[in-house]
Specification:
With about 450 residues, this protein is an alpha/beta fold. The protein is built from 17 helices and 14 strands. α1 crosses α3, α5 runs parallel beside α6 and α13 packs parallel to α14. The mean pLDDT is about 95.
Length: about 450
């Protein structure tokens, strides 16, 4: 098939590359001319496992085309996926201006029948709004061109977007048109050869499925973090609690890992957006409070590690330097959106500390975007050990694999104090204490 993808970022680029892998011709459109020019040169805007090779192959086989031209894209495709950002607005609701802008462009330029698929995470009713905008633009032009707007939410986790696209857990399509649903079914079938996981629902149900999925995963994280707070009060180990809970097949162990809080592009904004949507449509307060508590717990959880540092080293950290491993919100990505590391850094800087940070992928994001121009923080790009020299303690904020089996003897020699604050519960307590470290983690009975 001939596919268009509008918005070439964390969702759009893996989506486009995967479709090309299956032999489809894909036009990748973005209004960022520099991004498109870089992509033509093989320079990717994001770090995702396996993505660079997939993009390279798609370009070699002349199946991936990068452009800023709407007319070129719309004249060559039969299905258009809208994968632009839907960031939270000032009130927390989803900002749909980018989605709406795409709808205006499509309506004012389309010359032949199209299927427009909302891939962006959007509130219920967005497909109706997109349809109305396109129809209004066609009416202005006096054109009568058939088109369909469907909801096709993405379920790609950052760090494994390619594998999630190549072997999807499910493909959800929301439309009331059987023929359109079957066309999309055929497009996705090559990704589901081991078992058909195509789910055809109504448009509104598809839009809500995405929010409901992300919110319940965020809820599990906030719930186990609440259990971690109880464990700290009673001297228990939240890992054992999670193990006992997760062994129940009705519960399972997914997303039952206590931590310094979730972040990223999806969970924070989607929880906020669902809260605002529930308010807008008049959902009773007790239900909204359940959603709000997910966000409140997570916001508080991001402050736990810095509070432990202050409890151990004092409120005045002037003249004291701390090492930080991890800047991204999770492993295997350079994405720092809503990362717990940002809160940890900012809280410690308020107390006068200085910080030297390492992350295998996210240093440039920190320096240039999320912690730009912050005095008191410096970065080590190549060696996670050298930055430990002269530091009071080590703080771990991301579960990156290379942090999991460190050279503890080398670390002890470099740190002023053999102290680790672990926001990801990476180590076994007996092992790390036998190595001579003070170890402060999340819900491991180490309340300070």
């Amino acid at each position: 098939m001939k596919i268009g993808v509008i918005g070439i970022g964390f969702v759009g680029l893996p989506l486009a590359a995967a479709f090309a892998k299956m032999g489809n011709t894909v036009y990748c459109l973005d209004t960022d001319a520099k991004k498109i020019e870089n992509l033509k040169q093989g320079i990717l805007p994001i770090d995702e496992a396996g993505l660079e090779e997939l993009v390279k192959k798609g370009m070699e086989h002349k199946l991936l085309h990068f452009t800023t031209d709407y007319d070129e894209t719309l004249s060559n495709v039969e299905i258009v996926f809208v994968a632009v950002g839907t960031p939270p607005g000032q009130d927390g609701s989803a900002d749909l201006r980018f989605v709406e802008s795409v709808a205006y462009e499509i309506g004012s330029r389309m010359q032949k029948p199209l299927i427009i698929a909302d891939k962006s995470t959007v509130p219920v009713g967005t497909a109706d709004n997109v349809r109305a905008i396109i129809q209004a633009e066609l009416d202005k032009r006096g054109e009568n061109i058939e088109f369909h707007v469907v909801s096709n939410p993405e379920f790609m986790a950052e760090g494994r977007a390619v594998s999630d696209m190549m072997e999807p857990s499910r493909v959800v399509v929301g439309t009331d048109n059987i023929e359109v649903a079957e066309k999309l079914h055929q497009l996705y079938k090559p990704f589901m050869m081991s078992g058909d996981r195509f789910i055809h629902v109504g448009v509104h149900e598809a839009e809500l499925i995405k929010y409901a999925s992300n919110t319940i995963l965020a809820e599990r994280i906030s719930y186990i973090n609440t259990m971690s707070a109880i464990c700290e009060m009673i001297g228990g180990d939240v890992k054992q609690i999670a193990k006992g809970m997760g062994s129940d097949p009705r519960i399972g162990n997914k997303f039952l890992y206590a931590s310094c809080g979730y972040g990223g592009s999806c969970f924070p904004k989607d929880v906020k957006a669902l809260i605002k949507f529930a308010e807008k449509i008049g959902v009773p307060e007790p239900y909204r409070n359940l959603l709000k508590s997910i966000e409140d717990v997570n916001d508080y959880q991001k402050t736990i590690i810095s509070s432990k540092v202050v409890a151990r080293f004092g409120a005045d950290l002037t003249g004291q330097k701390f090492a930080l491993w991890g800047l991204a919100f999770k492993a295997e990505t350079n994405d720092m959106r809503e990362s717990a590391a940002i809160t940890i850094v900012e809280e410690l800087l308020k107390h006068g500390a200085t910080i030297v940070a390492y992350d295998p992928l996210a240093v440039e994001e920190a320096k240039n975007v999320y912690l730009a121009n912050r005095e008191g923080i410096s970065y080590e790009k190549m060696d996670k050990y050298s930055l430990l020299d002269g530091c009071e303690a080590l703080i771990i904020a991301t579960e990156t694999e290379e942090y999991r089996s460190p050279d503890l003897e080398r670390m002890k020699k470099l740190l002023i104090n053999p102290v680790i604050f672990d926001g990801r519960n990476l180590f076994d307590i007996p092992f790390i204490k036998k190595a001579g470290f003070e170890y402060y983690a999340i819900g491991r009975g180490d309340k300070l």
